[in-house]
């Protein structure tokens, strides 16, 4: 059963955004990336689509949720800065096939925990915007993690 870790797509730049960072949306490019992410990940039999409450994360996986006829569930455990809370949350997803969207500080926390365990990771640990990691569970442990590069648009 795979879990897909998705880093949010390209958002409007922080320097150009005067409002609360939590409501910073995707850019035009980011919206195109979100559509391409949905096309790529809709092949997996997802039972849930989970997201950081940040608008840029929700917008990244909303097309996927629509394609799968699933509501995007906002989870504080996936918010920017969640750290250990995100790791503990993901451990609770064992046996489920879900996609989760988070940030450039949370995704590496999750990957480093996998790498420290017995998970086989053959790809370099990178997490650019709009990329994903496919992590498989073999019934006893996180078995493999494979990198899915951002869509080329």
Report on this model:
The protein has helices at residues 28-41, 55-68, 84-91, 106-116, and strands at residues 2-7, 48-51, 72-74, 98-102, 120-121, 132-137, 142-148. Helix 2 (55-68) links the parallel strand 2 (48-51) and strand 3. The chain has four helices and seven strands. With 153 residues, it is of the alpha/beta class. The longest helix has 14 residues, at 28-41. The model has no long low-confidence stretch (mean pLDDT 92). It has one domain: 3-Layer(aba) Sandwich (Rossmann fold). Helix 1 (28-41) packs parallel to helix 2 (55-68) and helix 3 (84-91) crosses helix 4.
Compute the average pLDDT: 92
Bin the strand percentage: 15-25%
CATH class term: Alpha Beta
Summarize the amount of helix as a percent range: 25-40%
Large-scale geometry: globular
Spans of at least 5 consecutive residues whose pLDDT stays below 50 are: none
The arrangement of helices and strands along the chain is: EHEHEHEHEEE
Q: What composes the largest sheet?
A: 7 strands, mixed
- Under CATH, the homologous superfamily reads Phosphoglycerate mutase-like
Tell me the radius of gyration: 14 Å
CATH architecture: 3-Layer(aba) Sandwich
Count helical runs. 4
Major sheet strand order: 3-2-4-1-6-7-5
How far the N terminus sits from the C terminus, by CA atoms, comes to 29 Å
CATH fold-level topology: Rossmann fold
The structural class is alpha/beta
Number of domains: 1
Number of strands: 7
Quaternary structure annotation: single chain
